[in-house]
């Protein structure tokens, strides 16, 4: 279940936020016993620090939460950093925060309640948060629900989240919002000209498929394409065991796209949305595709296979070609595509490439406003030669090891010719627990995209 705000309550405990700059003044405004108590606890208002202020009967009068120094940006969701330390109860923010900072605090508190409890009994939820005055609670709950959907899908092991189950999750979302959905699977992919999706997934007993969801009858057209590789062995270029351990998250692009689609549909954003997810498992048997094979694509471009572990760009290529045929106003692909992207920016930033100047300007600004960091990477045209082998139109895995994220993005761009295009190369996993972001699957870039859409699409 996605976390929601608790109903207003006269007994809700105040969460009082204070910066280190304002701590002395805040203490001066309290009755002496209360101020003395906070001083005695050693409360300094550092980020995420909390101190409970008791009533005479021992109950909690208020909880003070530190915001750190004014303007400090080292920690996202700073208020939520205190959530894990809070005693049981229902809380409401009493804060100097306003506007976007208040929205971030409220969203962070909701996301701090997330638990992935599919495989074990979850502890009873003994914390609840009332929506603070001044926010759009419905919007914040929609953002939290989309993010929690993404987390649940990524966190689910591949045994229970294969192409079938990913399609079921998409169908559940479509039904929830009145969207339409179709699926092309198995050998029908060949019959309907999706050869790359079929080839990557054919070695698995779990049939490859293309999920196609549509919602909305008017407004600009947006197509989202998510990489749905539900498990990646690497194929015949088999990954070592240590590299295979997290490959349940290789459908993180699809999970993020579905989370973003929920946000768009729940908030009734006035656009026409299409979601395309090539869902496959990259497995090994006698029918697996081989290094050295030359494959055809939906667009007619041929691809030489130099590494079967560079399969994500192959399934995305056919889906992007279909997206481009629909002539939307913008195409966005999201994928856990390259380790090179993680080397470049680490696990906390969503790198993106775009052919659209409006998106290039809008995304970083929106990301800063909604605490969802992104960073633009270049479609560097001189590197095009690196993806052009001798015997085919394209190379799926250029040798040399340089600019891996860029060459992968350039490969994908070859399949979008008529439409403004943005590509995200995300990690989709939080390696260490952080405020509002437990260790495990995580959405990246979705809230930034949502916030940028009005400017990009003229909504």
Automatic annotation (TrEMBL):
* The keyword Protease is assigned to this record: yes
Q: Which UniProt keywords apply?
A: Aminopeptidase, Hydrolase, Manganese, Protease
Q: Where is the Cytosol aminopeptidase domain?
A: 307-314
Gene3D superfamilies attached to this UniProt entry: Leucine Aminopeptidase, subunit E, domain 1, Zn peptidases
Which PROSITE patterns does the UniProt entry name for this protein?
Answer: CYTOSOL_AP
A single Gene Ontology biological process assigned to it is: proteolysis
Hydrolase recorded as keyword: yes
- GO cellular component labels: cytoplasm
List, in alphabetical order, the Gene Ontology terms for molecular function in this entry. Answer: manganese ion binding; metalloaminopeptidase activity
| InterPro entries to which the protein is assigned, alphabetical | Leucine_aapep/pepB, Macro_dom-like, Peptidase_M17_C, Peptidase_M17_N_1
Among Pfam families, the record links this protein to: Peptidase_M17, Peptidase_M17_N_1
**What protein family does this chain belong to?**
Belongs to the peptidase M17 family.
Q: Which PANTHER family match?
A: LEUCINE AMINOPEPTIDASE-RELATED, PEPTIDASE B
What name does UniProt use for this protein?
Putative cytosol aminopeptidase family protein
